[in-house]
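Appendix B, Record 12. Input sequence as logged:
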Amino acid sequence: MKKNFKYLVVGVLIGALTVGVTAMADALWEKIDVVRNQITVKINGETLSADNFLYNNTTYVPIRAVAEALGKDVNYADGVAYISDAYEVAFDGEETVVDGKYKATVGEINSYMAVERAKEENAGRSDEEIAQLAIAGIVEYNAIKELALENGIVLGEDFYGKYQNTIAFLEMQYGGKEGLQEAMKASGFSAEMYQRYVQTNYLSEKLMTCDAFKTTLEEVKEYYEANQDQFGYEGVQAQHILIKTVDDNGKEIENKTQLKEKEDLANSVYKKANGGEDFDKLIEQYNEDPGMSVNPEGYVFTYGEMVPEFEAAAFALKEGEISKPVKTSYGWHIIKKIKDIKAMPLDSALADEISANLTASKIQQALLTKITAQ
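Logged structural output:
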């Protein structure tokens, strides 16, 4: 049986004219009234130009040029062009239809079942249950591949290069090919099935970055505001003025006179702040923590993120209240509590996380639509 079971078979007429002299070939084109020209084909938004010919008012497009632009292999045999994915995995066995829509071979189904059987969470499941999980995996892969193709994503040379690098790295990790094969076998993977696994991840990652499923900052903010309960957070926002009692290397100052001067300065700054002087201006004048210049509105933190003395003092304050000097291993701190934080702040890290989740949700919905479509 042929290994490439997913061929799209296209009947083509193969001409018998094989004249090798250019002048004779040109004359022959004119004799049978064929016009050679360039055709432009748009594939997933990208333009492809290729030779074609016009005969009896019919334009004939070159199969190979278009197919290869879609990441396909083209092979001719007995007057038939066989077109298949360039780097698709070929499984043995007779072909059947799963889920009423997608085709799979017996070898493909068995390969998916082997992986499912090896999973700890599937221990004790019946063969029928394992088969259903395998079919679900095959259906999901085909839906992912379809969705990827619709968005101009194919399994081309970029994928294969990354796949080869992955295998080379794993062989190094497991002490060679045999070691890797043993590790794969223990997890239920054949070489073909592992390539399918990598293909699935590759296409999924590419979908996450394509424009069709892009998540905007406005969508992120809207989701954040509408789902505050998901971002519950017990924290505070606080500014502080640090009077250091350590040198530039972080070593505690040993001179007692200097230490007393530092303590006196901290008490003096506290009196000014507590007396109503502008705290921001006092920060500019006295603060020795460079981090405050990066976070002029104060640090946002929860339990366990600051040194214990600083944390305890900050949480104990009321909003707008200023602490007496607090001693830590860094020095003396005069802390001003800006506000309590009841939800995680929408910083860049959280925004990226929400964006990724929303994008993944859009892709999952698109896949579900494909899978359930009749």
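The longest strand covers residues 232-244.
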